[in-house]
Amino acid sequence: MLLVELVYRVTASFPREEMFGLTAQLRRAAVSVPSNIAEGAGRNSSREFIQFLGITCGSLAEVETQLELAVRLRLLDERSDVLGQINRVGRLVRLLRQSLKSD
């Protein structure tokens, strides 16, 4: 959830012409991260949860790619907290997947 909050905060400063482009895409991808974790956790089996965690990893990669683009376009400082948060969330999701696979 912190990742989503950070994405919303940094995209609030993006140019208005990006409202329906990069801003909207980043926000959708970021929201899908905790949403997929929640949906997977609510499923009936660890196998289904693992599948949703895989989707979560895809969404994280999408957010990371779009944030890198924002840095290259000078819409975002490369030292932004949101970039560090992507790494933290990714590490936690990977560890959770590994834990569920080993059960």
Explained architecture:
The chain has 103 residues and is mostly helical. The chain contains four helices and no strands. The longest helix has 27 residues.
Instruction: Name the quaternary structure.
Output: single chain
In this structure, how is the largest beta sheet organized? Answer: none
How large, in whole angstroms, is the Cα Rg? 14 Å
Count of helical stretches? 4
By DSSP, the count of extended strands is 0
Descriptive key words:
103 residues; 0% strand; 77% helix; mainly alpha; elongated
Summarize this structure briefly:
With 103 residues, this protein is mainly α.
Question: How are the secondary structure elements laid out?
Answer:
Layout: H1 2-11, H2 22-41, H3 46-72, H4 81-102
